[in-house]
């Protein structure tokens, strides 16, 4: 089995992404997550440019890693100085990692116009710096910055930069597509042509996603023969990001039969990605290949039908291979089959041609045309079914609610701007209470739970984790229909409910009361009627 | 210049993405946006499977499109029926578009195991259906579903499906990589091998992003010779989405010198993408190639230094080519320049180093960190500048407002659910009034304009044309911050204002009162003070 070393730069190139910032603690957590996954190398920072990174390398000595090697990153020495006097290079040695990535210029334009030195001096900077680190006892990977643009502009000079790195003692030459502007066929061609000139030398690839081809270009370079792929697990990086290593690993493991994550570890891919996203405080796009929440979610009716007959009809792999899962979504394009399956969970004996089923389907379609969208609100969907099948006895009934907001607010010492009054009937008893909140929905939410907790103590554990509002057909302006989606949790389970109305308060009320009913049903609480 | 036709399926394949749902109004808006961009074909729905899509095609006849052709999408006839009796095919004809996309099965496994018919019958289904549509007067593109998997499983049968489509009269054969599991080199090889067998025939490509290579595979197919690329502008689609046409257009236009958007239209790419995202109520990832907010944002110190010396050092194209802009994140020099330009429009003599300018910049930055986003609310932006520069005298002041909502509502014969009371001071006079509405914002909006119209009759022409709500950081649930954007019109001009608060009523109040002030300033009404 061909072995490819994944080189993750989430903590270095990834931290150059807009909105990404890691504390030393965050970095230690991410290193451990990447080690669990079995990434070969973890580029963890630039100790010469950043004192936080230097601190990280000292603290990292506490870690015991199973699979991964830490790599410190830094530039070549400054022009016209000696390597042994260069503070950045000395910091790299002090960081004490067994592997060091040194980047240097391969594009003549960058040498003359950006760092502003001679072409000869730049080659010496590469050679000297790598020799200095190598002689200190670390293995050096050379990141040939802007290699591809350099090759297209001055091929011989780009090749000379690689030769200088080899003279210095670099063990792997990493070709960097730094601007990210090349299409994959160009990356492949240049990688092939270059490697042909250096038989027996190990090469790596480092791409950026500025034209949306970073993953494909990395794979193209693997086809050309590189042994190391640099990127970041979730694609974080300057501008459009680096090659997404989750996608690269998925392809190498499931399509090309390469070993890139120590055997079985591909099954941990989704969970490790979610862990890293959590530490980075970033939401993974649902559509992310292999690991996204929607990566194996099916919505179109024919797709759902196909997947139920044989998952391979619309899935390129079994989602379990990468630790993800299949999901069948409810929607107007999903068709009858899925709705029937969902109905069967609640009423297993109901025939699909029963008039009740038919009228239920009509009701669901009607609700969707009114703006309900059950794909993110499966708990409300279940309640619709139960109510329609008369398998539902209410836990409470609303007598009335009232929300009162004012500016200035009556109590100037409070953050609240609204009060809500809710009166309900439970088990023949009436109860009324009031609560305040920031905005009318917040006040209503508090008042409703407050008045019901006395009857149903299990509701004390419920809290809202998400609240979304979408104005449907916003051209109706402030009298437009509004769709409210809420997600609730009791610390163990979470569930989603929906409400639609022209009045945002009423839409929120529907979603809030569905949330409470769903929790009570799920807990098996006996419905006590109105 | 080589011409490539872009075929956008945002409204069809895109609506099969999780979380995406379009009303008929949304669809009409997106068609107009895509037409502005100059996309060749817009696949707008499946009239046979979905009554909303059929309604769309009827309504679409009101539209006058400059560049784009509408395409209706549908499947081949059912097995063992006649094409002329198939309700789906009849709906396609009724939709009345000049172009129709018919999809059929090219993978033997799908024929036998999913739609469960014979291999022969499937070929007849393809041929008959296409002939039926062709004879009705529309041009047919054949979407060869699962073509690549089919080619790998049973090459001759996959080719037979294309031959059947040609016999039926299809003018373009679109090879679909439906499961999205192939790497780009495979897509290219199979496209090349296939096209070599059909000299003179037009081919298209349709890819999915399940391994993160959809864009690269589309480009690989263009290199192989296809003339049509199918995808969705923002990459929406089942599972991981379709090929992102913004990226494809960016590459075709700026790298391969192809004409795919009617000449100069590439400069509209970013703004049209943002418009479509707004209608879809989806946030564009900052890192999106070409069009993302971070696509030309530079954060690393060396990158910023390089870009200031020469932007080409770290940018693969000039962001203006695709209507995007450069941003330097550390120094915020770019942000400053843009703000200064805007300030100069209102106060042309203000020096950029004036302390007033500096403190205004600080205020704007503070507001942005609070959740204000002036990109879609330039009128509020102007008001912030005026207030800060003391170039502002108020037209009215709020004494207090109150909103009262209840369920059931006091007046059962009214659609209203809320009343609002607004008391203001204008020219030393107090005035108070009340109004009802569907929801608290609608009531407040009506009451505010009602109380002010007596002082400023010009406000009688003002009405709201759009109202949007976005929950910022929705994990704060019902106590999350909310951003309200409204668009107002007086029948001649339209303008946009914004408000941010944890209380949706207060956020709406800010946006509503800004809208009124902006209108009065624009009309040159003398501010009469409080």
Automatic annotation (TrEMBL), chains A, B:
Its EC number is 2.3.3.21. Pfam families: HCS_D2, HMGL-like, LeuA_dimer. Keywords: Acyltransferase, Amino-acid biosynthesis, Branched-chain amino acid biosynthesis, Isoleucine biosynthesis, Transferase. The keyword Cell cycle does not apply. Coiled coil: none annotated. GO terms for biological process: isoleucine biosynthetic process; L-leucine biosynthetic process. Pathway: Amino-acid biosynthesis; L-isoleucine biosynthesis; 2-oxobutanoate from pyruvate: step 1/3. It catalyses: pyruvate + acetyl-CoA + H2O = (3R)-citramalate + CoA + H(+). Residues 4-270 form the Pyruvate carboxyltransferase domain. GO terms for molecular function: (R)-citramalate synthase activity; 2-isopropylmalate synthase activity. It is an enzyme of class 2 (transferase). PANTHER family: (R)-CITRAMALATE SYNTHASE (PTHR43538:SF1), ALPHA-IPM SYNTHASE/HOMOCITRATE SYNTHASE (PTHR43538). Belongs to the alpha-IPM synthase/homocitrate synthase family. This is Citramalate synthase. It comes from Sphaerochaeta globosa (strain ATCC BAA-1886 / DSM 22777 / Buddy) (Spirochaeta sp. (strain Buddy)).
């Amino acid at each position: 089995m061909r072995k490819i070393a994944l080189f993750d730069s989430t903590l270095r190139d990834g931290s150059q992404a807009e909105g990404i910032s890691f504390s030393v603690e965050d970095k230690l957590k991410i290193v451990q997550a990447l080690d669990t996954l079995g990434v070969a190398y973890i580029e963890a920072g630039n100790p010469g440019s950043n004192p936080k990174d230097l601190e990280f390398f000292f603290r990292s000595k506490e870690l015991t890693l199973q699979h991964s090697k830490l790599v410190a990153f830094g530039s070549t020495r400054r022009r016209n100085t000696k390597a042994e006097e260069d503070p950045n290079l000395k910091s790299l040695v002090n960081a004490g990692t067994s592997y060091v990535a040194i980047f240097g210029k391969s594009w003549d334009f960058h040498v003359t116009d950006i760092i502003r030195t001679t072409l000869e001096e730049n080659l010496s900077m590469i050679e000297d710096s790598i020799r200095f680190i190598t002689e200190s006892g670390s293995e050096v990977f050379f990141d040939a910055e802007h290699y591809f643009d350099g090759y297209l502009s001055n091929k011989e000079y780009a090749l000379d930069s690689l030769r200088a790195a080899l003279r210095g003692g670099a063990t792997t030459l990493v070709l960097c597509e730094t601007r990210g502007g090349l299409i994959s066929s160009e990356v492949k061609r240049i990688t092939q042509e270059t490697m042909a000139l250096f038989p027996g030398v190990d090469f790596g690839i480092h791409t950026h996603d500025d034209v949306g081809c970073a993953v494909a270009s990395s794979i193209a370079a693997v086809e050309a023969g590189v042994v190391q792929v640099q990127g970041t697990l979730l694609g974080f990086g300057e501008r459009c990001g680096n090659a997404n290593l989750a996608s690269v690993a998925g392809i190498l493991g499931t399509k090309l039969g390469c070993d890139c994550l120590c055997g079985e570890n591909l099954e941990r891919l989704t969970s490790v990605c979610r862990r890293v996203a959590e530490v980075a405080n970033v939401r993974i796009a649902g559509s992310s290949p292999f690991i996204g929440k929607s990566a194996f979610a099916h919505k179109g009716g024919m797709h759902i039908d196909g997947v139920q007959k044989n998952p391979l009809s619309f899935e390129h792999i079994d989602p379990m291979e990468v630790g993800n899962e299949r999901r069948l979504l409810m929607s107007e394009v999903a068709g009858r089959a899925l709705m029937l399956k969902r109905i069967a969970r609640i009423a297993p004996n109901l025939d699909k041609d029963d008039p009740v089923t038919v009228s239920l389907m009509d009701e669901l379609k009607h609700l969707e045309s009114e703006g309900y969208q059950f794909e993110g609100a499966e708990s409300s969907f279940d309640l619709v079914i139960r109510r329609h099948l008369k398998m539902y006895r209410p836990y409470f009934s609303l007598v009335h609610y009232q929300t009162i907001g004012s500016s200035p607010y009556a109590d100037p010492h409070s953050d609240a701007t609204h009060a809500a009054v809710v009166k309900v009937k439970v088990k023949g008893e009436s109860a009324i209470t009031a609560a305040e909140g920031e905005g009318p929905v917040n006040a209503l939410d508090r008042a409703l739970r407050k008045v019901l907790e006395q009857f149903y103590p299990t509701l004390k554990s419920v809290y809202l984790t998400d609240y979304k509002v979408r104005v449907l057909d916003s051209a109706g302006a402030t009298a437009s229909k509004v769709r409210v989606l809420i997600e609730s949790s009791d610390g163990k389970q979470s569930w989603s409910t929906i409400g639609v109305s022209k009045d945002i308060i009423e839409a929120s009320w529907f979603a809030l009361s569905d949330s409470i009913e769903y929790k009570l049903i799920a807990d098996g609480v006996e419905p006590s009627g109105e």
